[in-house]
Structure formats: structure tokens, C-alpha cells
TrEMBL record:
The lineage of its organism: Eukaryota, Viridiplantae, Streptophyta, Embryophyta, Tracheophyta. This is Reverse transcriptase RNase H-like domain-containing protein. Residues 61-117 form the Reverse transcriptase RNase H-like domain. The keyword Nuclease applies. InterPro entries: DNA/RNA_pol_sf, RT_RNaseH, Viral_Replic_Matur_Polypro. Signal peptide: none annotated. It comes from Solanum tuberosum.
Length: 117
């Protein structure tokens, strides 16, 4: 059981979490408001990922458990996409190879844009 300390907060993904509430981090809002207004299309870009990171290698990991399949796509050791699906009753009773193959084919199907470049 987790006991929340009084008067403490946790900063998480642009939010401030406390025992009483969850609010947006105002520092993030101010930073966004202070961004210069773009004049050209090229000025509107995501600055968190530079071009060398964008073109670096991605890796995928798939698995099939007794009741579901999942896929995690990672780049430089960080997950960038996730997929999971519950298996039908029939597929849950199938040989281990069938759900594993479904996991692989679903992963390739869902991540096609990453694989083709």
C-alpha cells in the first residue's frame, strides 16, 4: 500500500500530481506561450527528435502469452510504440506457434511504415 506524504508533489509528463489533485505544470504552459510565432511551414517542427535520431535503427519485440499478444517498437532503447490485443478463445487454445505467428504478422502489419522507411 502506498502512503502519500503530506504536502509533496510529483512532476510527471507535464503534470503535477499531489495527494489532492492533478494539475497541468504551469511552467510547461508558459514555455509554450513564449515560443515565437512561426512564419513558415519549416518553422513548425518537433524539436524533441533531431534528424539523426529519426533515421536511427528501430527494433521490435513481440510475444504471445496465454491470453494476449503484444508488440513494442523501440528506438535507441526507448519504446516509441506499443500494441496489444486479446486473443480469441480459439486462438488461446491453439498451439504455441500460432499465437506467436499472429503476434509477428500483426506487428509487421501495424509497423509497416517504420519497416519500409
Amino acid at each position: 500500500m502506498f502512503i502519500w506524504p503530506d504536502e509533496s508533489t510529483i512532476d510527471y509528463l507535464g503534470h503535477v500530481i499531489s495527494k489532492k489533485d492533478l494539475v497541468v505544470d504551469t511552467g510547461k504552459i508558459i514555455a509554450i506561450q513564449q515560443l515565437p510565432e512561426p512564419n513558415w511551414v519549416k518553422d513548425v517542427r518537433y524539436t524533441g527528435l533531431n534528424s539523426s535520431e529519426f533515421y536511427s535503427r528501430v527494433s521490435g519485440e513481440t510475444d504471445a502469452s496465454g491470453q494476449s499478444i503484444w508488440d513494442v517498437l523501440s528506438q535507441q532503447g526507448h519504446p516509441i510504440a506499443y500494441f496489444s490485443q486479446k486473443l480469441s478463445f480459439r486462438m488461446q487454445r491453439a498451439s504455441t506457434y500460432h499465437p506467436e505467428m499472429v503476434a509477428i504478422t500483426q506487428a509487421v502489419s501495424k509497423r509497416r511504415q517504420y519497416l519500409l522507411g
